[in-house]
């Protein structure tokens, strides 16, 4: 399927799933056709240190550059939206550190005001923070449940009289 502008997440690769993979990121991938993908909205990702695809430092692609988000005023409602957008269930917590931002990396000073019910982070109202509100040790992180809501095994025991 060729990439096009949409209201959903755009991956920079084409996924070649066979149907047995437990998560989307387990599927084999090839580069986006033509080498370039365009999207009118910012993408979101979690930078991890290898522990899980559904936890880590929150980053947003702004004008073609990945930037960590500032943790000032970062909320569980904002984190819930990120987890939902990435197919990682619901937010369990918004821990501090470890931070993966290096000196010289830019941190986005956009503050999100999500209610928690939005499907995408870019759907939330925003304000811009002052530059002094954020430092390299103050970046937004999230731990998601790792499962989509509604998935799991339900066992019912019926008693017949």
Automatic annotation (TrEMBL):
Keyword Disulfide bond: yes
Database matches in Gene3D superfamilies: SRCR-like domain
SUPFAM superfamilies for the chain: SRCR-like (SSF56487)
Disulfide bonds listed in the record: 70-134, 83-144, 114-124
InterPro entries for the chain: SRCR, SRCR-like_dom_sf
Residue intervals of the SRCR domain: 44-145
Superkingdom, natural source: Eukaryota
Keyword Cell inner membrane attached: no
A Pfam family that the UniProt record links to this protein: SRCR
Recorded GO CC terms: external side of plasma membrane
Matching SMART domains: SR
UniProt keyword terms in alphabetical order: Disulfide bond, Glycoprotein, Repeat, Signal
Name this protein carries in UniProt: SRCR domain-containing protein
Upper lineage: Eukaryota, Metazoa, Chordata, Craniata, Vertebrata
């Amino acid at each position: 399927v060729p990439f096009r502008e949409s209201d959903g997440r755009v991956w920079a690769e084409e996924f070649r799933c066979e149907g047995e993979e437990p998560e989307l990121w387990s599927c084999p991938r090839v580069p986006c056709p033509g080498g370039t993908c365009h999207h009118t909205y910012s993408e979101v990702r979690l930078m991890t240190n290898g522990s899980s695809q559904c936890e880590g430092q929150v980053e947003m692609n702004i004008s073609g550059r990945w930037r960590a988000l500032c943790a000032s005023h970062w909320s569980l409602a904002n984190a819930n939206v990120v987890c939902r957008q990435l197919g990682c269930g619901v937010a369990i917590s918004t821990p501090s550190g470890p931070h993966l931002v290096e000196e010289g990396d830019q941190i986005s000073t956009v503050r999100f005001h999500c209610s928690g019910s939005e499907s995408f982070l870019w759907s939330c109202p925003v304000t811009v923070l002052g530059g002094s509100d954020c430092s390299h040790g103050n970046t937004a992180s999230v731990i998601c449940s790792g499962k989509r809501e509604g998935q799991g095994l339900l066992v019912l025991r019926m008693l017949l009289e």
